């Protein structure tokens, strides 16, 4: 499991619960496809593109570049509902 880091939402959550985020300051992209619980999934679902969120990510299975959000805390949103 990683430490919580800041990520910018670059693709809102789709019908398959996948959200794409970009890490700060590395500019690496991550596809978040699993969530620790329904609350974490809903927090991410409420984030519009451009929102900055602090998340703790862990690998989701053996697939490449797919991640599980262990914790979610909104740092800054550009609309949508704030998830504290």
From TrEMBL:
Q: Which residues form the DUF7999 domain?
A: 2-77
Source organism, top-level taxon: Archaea
Its protein name is DUF7999 domain-containing protein
């Amino acid at each position: 499991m990683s430490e919580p880091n800041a990520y910018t939402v670059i693709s809102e959550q789709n019908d398959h619960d996948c959200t794409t985020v970009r890490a700060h300051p590395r500019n690496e992209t991550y596809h978040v496809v699993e969530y620790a619980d329904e609350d974490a999934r809903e927090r991410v679902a409420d984030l519009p593109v451009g929102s900055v969120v602090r998340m703790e990510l862990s690998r989701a299975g053996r697939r490449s570049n797919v991640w599980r959000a262990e914790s979610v805390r909104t740092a800054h949103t550009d609309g949508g509902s704030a998830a504290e």
